[in-house]
Amino acid sequence: MYQYDLIDREFLADRSAEFRGQVARRLSGELTEDQFKPLRLMNGLYLQLHAYMLRIAIPYGSLNPSQLRRLAEIARDYDKGYGHFTTRQNIQFNWIKLKDAPDILDKLAEVDLHAIQTSGNCIRNTTSDPYAGATAEEVDDPRVWCEVIRQWSTLHPEFSFLPRKFKIAITASAKDRTAAKVHDIGLLLRQGRDGRLGFEVIVGGGQGRTPYVGPTIKEFLPTDRLLSYLEAVLRVYNRHGRRDNIYKARIKILVAALGAEEFARQVEEEWAKIDPARADLPASELARIRAAFAKTPFETLPARSETFEVAKAGDAAFARFVRNNVRDHKKPGYAIVEISLKAQAQTPGDASADQLEVVADLAERYGLNDLRVTHAQNLVLPHVKLDDLPTVFAALQAANLATPNIDLVSDIIACPGLDYCALANARAIPIAQDIARQFADLDRAERVGELKIKISGCINACGHHHVAHIGILGVDKKGEEFYQLSLGGSGAEDASIGKILGPALPADRVATAVDQLVGAYLGIRADGERFLDTYRRVGLEPFKEAVYAQAD
Amino acid sequence: MPRLIELADGEARWAEDGFVHLADEDPIPETGDVILSLARFEAEGDALLSSNARRVGVRIESHEEVEVLAYDLPRIALVALAFPKFRDGRAYTSARLLRERFGYPGQIRAVGDVLQEQAGFMVRCGFDAFEPADGASPEAWTKAARRFRHVYQRAADDRPAAFEERAS
Amino acid sequence: MKAVTANRLLDGEVVFWKSGQWVDRFGDAQLFDDHHAADVEAAVATGKGQPTIVVDVYPIDLIQSEGRWAPLSYRERIRALGPTNEPTHGKQAEGGDVVAALRQASGAARSTGRVDLIRRK
Fold it and tell me: Is the pTM for the entire model greater than 0.90?
């Protein structure tokens, strides 16, 4: 893993001191709320319904055990004992006091964590594949490029006051676990015919009130030209993105207005004027960063573990966990373990301080000190020996962290919704809990197979409802919470935007409606079809019928 | 009117402002240095520059592109880049292009909603004169501009980026 | 009936106007009759003049529930109670009649002053 050096640490200390000064000036009245708000947002501090919310960056979703323990400590000392992992691999605390925020940032900086650029109209935390460095699917380690971008984008002097926020995702696997195609920029690492590495560059994807799957504007960008090309994209956007209407200010609107071809042409024109010797990262620095990620101390192990096989044969619960939450590792004798934060009655993505500490201990004892956060709001131990899996499973079980439902119907993405968020129109969490209860039977959930349900409490779409197999959007209908269902979206490599099923439903109808949709799918699916595949084959009608027929 | 702060050798100081900002309807004074809008500069700049020894600056609004000044830059004494709101970040691009692409050596002045919180970004992009709207003192400006001991990118200032520090 | 609410600058806590002061509990809030619109405006103006004490001051509409007054919109009820997914967090933790009445209130409609939400963060 990448280790911060003195430069990174002094930078964080300076940032923390700056924010402490800004808070003091706000409290004294020297800064007005209008002046202060963008400053606190640039440090991830929002004012929500009940308190301030602090969003802490987890660069490319990667943490070490001491960082996770520090997050647990902050949850306990400054919050109400829990944190919430987000779809952009960050963590949020819901009950923060403004007066404590500078102390919290100091404590975070001690373990190389911060909240820089977790809000505001700047380049946000770059997200990546939670299986990076562990999966055999990848053509390169995407974390290398995420770290390059982390440094380049941190307090970028030219791109800190963009028309709107700016999100980048990088993946190096054919299977996309980052939702790259619905980011402002999605970078897909590819191997060229000559073996050289490059990025397919997707620009202008996004969700919110105008969802787009982003178009490819460059098929193959040589990796060593990444920063100059990003500079060109950001410069075209900074100059030409709309600033007159907040709803039309994202880059997706500019790309759609110009057309992908014309946007690409403008980027190429700008790119040609940029001096690569100044804008691109020198090979020596790239090698230094790459080396930091190449040091994972794997052991040489046999591919088969007797301990693991015996446990799997003898314990049905463990076998189910393995089926659903354990993935193949590139190294023989290792596995990738997903830790679901979607237990029955749990708030999706929430973890208690105690749970965070359990996971930190497991990462330290059995996981090569490595931990990841997924875009689906779960955690990952990327490097666990097959031999240790039964022990890890037992420890997870004891902490209510062994729910075997990854990518199944109850592995629901949900934004905080109106229970916490000042922007929400409706609650998202109770709907997720209702649906999870409806599908509590794990045998049935497994029979249904991969089904991605995502819930947003407003059109800003933090819960990614547009790219869900079943998307649920909370709306305010004459003062009551209603929910609009959409089908057929995907945030993965087969990205698409979902289509609205029909009129919005009241809260108490949503879980039943999902059940009806699943029932319809089970009735018409062909062999091997996921819900999404069946929908794509048969279209909206049979599903519409299943939900609305009796209602008339 | 905000007072002028100039930055030289990393130190911000109060400066006497020899220039007058002229609105498009204002008459051109007999003598003295003036800052004109781009439109007025394009219409009257040639005459002004050739008729007497006064210095001429041009004010570029955030939606205007500095590229249009490319051929005139050698005879322009200063470029004032406007921030209609501090959140409008287009002037940062304009400043970098003036310094890094066109090698402009004259003054680049930040005007409009210019706040000390943005001092660090402005200085890095090549601004060297400021008309702060928040009444910030030169001391506050110097401090804000020097807040960070390290930077992560190359820009229009000569500060070494983190990767250059590491290599040295 | 109306009340006036805000968030306290120092900790973000939801507060309500009560005769010149800011109080934590909705049950302690001053209630304004609809024909006392000028008093509501005066309270909001006073709050807006206290930028180092509170932020985001606005009036909310109330309805009757279980013989008590409750905020009309469910958003404001959640502000007055705490998150529904964590019934022991926030103001609702102390329980009592007022909390029970707030939880049972229904017939919501969006309160005034809550438009253009995206700019509010």
Answer: yes
Asked if A80 contacts A453 with a C-beta cutoff of 8 angstroms, the reply is no
**A478 has pLDDT over 90:** no
The one-letter code for the residue type at A293 is F
Q: Residue A51 has what pLDDT?
A: 97
Give the tens place of pLDDT for each residue, B97-134: 999 999 999 999 999 999 999 999 999 999 999 999 98
Tell if the CB–CB gap between A51 and C119 is shorter than 8 Å: no
* Residue for token pair 């001391």: B139
- Whether B12 and B138 have beta carbons less than 8 Å apart is answered as yes
- Chain C interface, Cβ < 8 Å to A: 7, 9-14, 51-52, 55-56, 72-75, 78-79, 82-86, 89-90, 107-110, 117-121
Which structural domain range is residue B110 located in? 4-167
* Closest Cβ–Cβ partner in B86, B90, B163 for A285: B163
Query: For A198-243, how does the pLDDT look when each residue is reduced to its tens digit (9 = 90+)?
Result: 999 999 999 999 999 999 999 999 999 999 999 999 999 999 999 9
**Does residue C117 carry a pLDDT above 50?**
no
Q: Which residues of C touch A460 (CB under 8 A)?
A: 118
Torsion over CA of A432, A437, A438 and A443, rounded to 10 degrees?
120
**Residue A235: which of B86, B88, B93 has the nearest Cβ?**
B93
Cα dist from A311 to A323, A395, A403, B161, C19, whole Å: 13, 15, 17, 53, 68
What digits encode the pLDDT tens for the residues A302-328? 999 999 999 999 999 999 999 999 999
On chain C, the residues whose CB falls within 8 A of the CB of A29 are 51-52
Q: Which residue of B has its CA nearest to A42?
A: B117
Judged by CB atoms closer than 8 Å, whether chains meet at C110 and A480 is answered as no
Taking every pair of Cα atoms in chain B, the longest distance, rounded to a whole number of angstroms, is 56
Per residue in B4-38, pLDDT (tens digit) is 999 998 899 999 999 999 999 999 998 899 999 99
Q: What distance in Å separates residue B10's CA from the closest CA in chain A?
A: 17
β B19-21/B33-37 pair status: parallel
Give yes or no for a contact between A517 and A547, defined as CB atoms under 8 angstroms apart: yes
Per DSSP (E only), the strands in chain B are 4-8, 11-15, 19-21, 33-37, 56-60, 78-83, 107-112, 129-130
Mean of pLDDT values over A385-404: 98
Short-list A371, A360, A374, A296, CA closest to A331: A296
Distance (Å, whole) CA B74 – CA B51:
17
Write out pLDDT tens, residues B137-155.
Answer: 999 999 999 999 999 999 9
pLDDT digits (tens, 9 = 90+) for C2-23: 999 999 999 999 999 999 999 9
Chain B: residue whose CA lies nearest to A157: B121
Place of tokens 């301030």: A52
For B117, name the nearest residue in chain A, comparing CA atoms only.
A39
**Six-digit token pair at A41?**
């947002």
The pair phi, psi for residue B15, each rounded to 5°, is -135, 150
* pLDDT given at position B33: 94
CB pairs under 8 A between A and C: 96
Q: Which residue of C has its CA nearest to A345?
A: C85
Indicate which CATH number applies to the domain containing B159: 3.20.20
Using an 8 Å CB-CB cutoff, list chain A residues near B90: 238-239, 243
pLDDT at res. C108: 47
Per-residue pLDDT tens for C58-80? 999 998 877 889 998 889 999 99
Chains C and B touch (3+ CB pairs under 8 A): no
List the single residue in A422, A424, A427 with the smallest CB-CB distance to C84: A427
Overall domain count for chain B: 1
A438 closest CA partner among A374, A345, A522:
A345
B contact chains, 3+ CB pairs < 8 A? A
- ipTM passes above 0.90: yes
